[in-house]
Amino acid sequence: MTGSNEVINPEIIFPECQKRHIFMLLMCAGGFMGAFTYILNGGVFCNAQTANFVLLAIALGQGHWKNALYYLLPISAYFGGTVLSEFFPERLKQQGSLRWDTVLVGIEIVIILGLGFLPETAPFQITQIAINFIASMQYNTFRQARNIPMATTFCTNHLRQTGIYIRKWVKTKNSETGKRILIHLAMIGIFVAGCIICTLLCPVFKGKAIWGAEIPLAIVFIDLLNADLKEGKSQTGNHK
Fold this sequence. Notes:
Pfam families: DUF1275
Strand content: under 5%
Keywords: Membrane, Transmembrane, Transmembrane helix
Organism: Candidatus Gallitreponema excrementavium
Protein name: DUF1275 domain-containing protein
């Protein structure tokens, strides 16, 4: 682990999926999706599951059994996404194909494209469950950027990390700790920016506004795919 006073070796070559710009783009998409489900799809946040567990408990406490059963659907979708994102990376690695990180972003692009084609009269639960599923896989797949623990679908972790590192910086005045504070604050700011952009687009484009999330995801996908192809060519050359 990297301690608060330990500077990351600048000579370490990190995989493309750990580059900070990748996480920032994913964070923007995460903010966009969070605002989209809240504004147009039931007034809920699908990027995490705490709210669904609270609503499940309230429904049980009030004896609303059908409502309680419904909340098991998004929770199960989120859980299923986590499980699948644990199994797929190893299988792809064994086959020597693209990295799971790249494949996942491609899956997200396809699902979001499909959601944009849904009619405005479609049940909002379809979008909720779909975003629960992909947000879970994204959160569980992109875990750290250059050895710094990260989340790309919500801000709670970044707010917590900012508080932790402010306390350490006050005590040590370490420059690396100061950089960590700025990184986590930047992630929060980019998440908020994604939410703002979605808020501006939703009244104009309605359900098709979700396609706005395709822009940062497409940039990430092209970047990761290019890195995978270069790595594949390099490995082929080494075997000649």
